[in-house]
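HUMAN: Please help interpret these tokens:
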Amino acid sequence: MLNEVNKSIMKGIATINFKGGVGKTTITWLLARYASEKRGKKILLIDTDAQMSLTTAAMAQKPFDLLVRDWYKDKHKGSAYTIANLIKSYSTNENKIQLLDPRSLIYPLTPSLSLIPSTEEMYGLEYNLEYQRNKYFFRDLIKKIGRKKTYDYIFFDCSPNFSPISCSVLNYASLYLVPVNPDPFGRLALKTMTNVLSKKIDQIKKKKFGVFMNKVNYFRNKPDRQASDNWTSLKAFKDYPKDIAIEFWNANIPDRAVIPRSIMSPTLLEAKNADPKIQSSINKLWDQLSGGASTDD
């Protein structure tokens, strides 16, 4: 019976960075689709960002774009089962998740890829929430979902800030994916984020940070000088908190105009259209994420 969630089965992965513009949503979408389409994994996507970028991407995807829009409008948006309404209820109802209707909460985009979307009501919600009261919302929600459905991986798309909502996500997730741009600001952003999380997240020593470069320019088939220098500096920095586990992964996502556009298109990962370097970097990122490759020493 699926009366408890087994975290080894339903592994929570949060894509985070307090710095905006690093490609969190695109990476989340590509990895989730890759795991579903190429590795045969059952994936649940959860959009916790009020900007709704992941939700918008799903609604733009053919062939299920019209179906998901109709479901969103007719069954989800006005129901009690939006993330925003469930959080409100949890906050005022002794931290309990009420009975769930999976048909109104989760949309099956494909047989192996499902979505819990965001809504406009997420805007400003965090200002009315208390950290301590809501820190286990997603843990309890996933337990409730796990009584009726199971997934191999749950991917969370997070907003670029620390709030009661992202705090709840990070308390549930065991792996944090941290895309960084190859520029001088990446190190400061990583230091700030890890310092904050080391003080705010329960059992932070048990969490893993997987840091990798996104939007990398290449020269002669290798990351260019700027990317290489900034990556070396990022890894050599010694002042990250001592109680966190940071791994620097050698999956370098290339800076290609096709990648941002791919979030609205189903063709990027199809063999006949795929850019080999993109395909290789996504494959390598997945192997490192799932434990199939070593870190970059």
